[in-house]
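Students often ask why we bother encoding 3D structure as a string. The short answer is that it lets us treat folding as translation between two languages. Here is a chain of 285 residues written in the first language.
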Amino acid sequence: MQDFIVEISDYAKGIDPEFAIIPQNGEELLFSKLDSEAPLDERLINAIDAIGIEEVFYNGGAYSPDDYRLQMLLKAKSRIPVLVADYLGNDGDYNQAVQYNTDAGFLAFPRVSTNYDYLQIPATVANENANDVLKLSDARNYLYLISDGGYTTKQHYLNAIQQTNFDVVIMDAFYGDELYTLAEINALKTKLNGGKRMIIGYMSIGSAEKYRYYWKDDWKLHKPRWLKKEYDGYAEEIWVKFWKEEWKTIIYGNENSYTKKLINAGFDGAYLDNVEAFYSLYFDE
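And here it is in the second language, the structure alphabet:
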């Protein structure tokens, strides 16, 4: 998986050197030989621009920081920004979640109890500012909004994002099966207060999604053979053998690849989900 992420980065930055790469979770990947006691893996650290992490301080229950993960992230934060999406069981913990992350030097996106699926825009912006955000290290906050289910039309969804002051917006690259246009994405790159911001496109690199443009009607589990294992809890996704060339070709390296579509649509970077595929799949091919 380290190799895969570096390959995606090399391809994207070969086209646009400023294109940001942000893997989500799988924080052991930040370290040599996946050993949290080892030094940071310089090749990977130099290939990515931040890391996104879910549920460090809150995981839907009482306050219970994951110290093992926290210590890895504290080591990494001197080199790359850390974006934390906690999930609150008690919505009253919102301000405290922001404070815990701010104290640790992380960017916070606490999700309230009704926002498990990243479908709501918070009423307030943590650490709001009017500064231009031209790279992730400039950011002080972010919005993670990959579901448009709360909005009646595409324009309703885009308008809702435009009317915010978030420094970074992580969003799906498609409305249904329609890729957002360059004009639509560029229109989102100015905050309501006039400052510039970054728009990052979501892309799963560890699972195939049955509703994506690349999915073929005759595909199913093990057909093609790199469709490896059912994804528990997500009926529309299948874990993939991410090291297979057929999957890599879908993700990067050509005009029809997911990464190239993000670049063509004007996104400032890619948010790489399901990198944790390496946990259970890498050694059981």
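Translate back mentally: The longest strand covers residues 51-59. Keep this in mind for the problem set.
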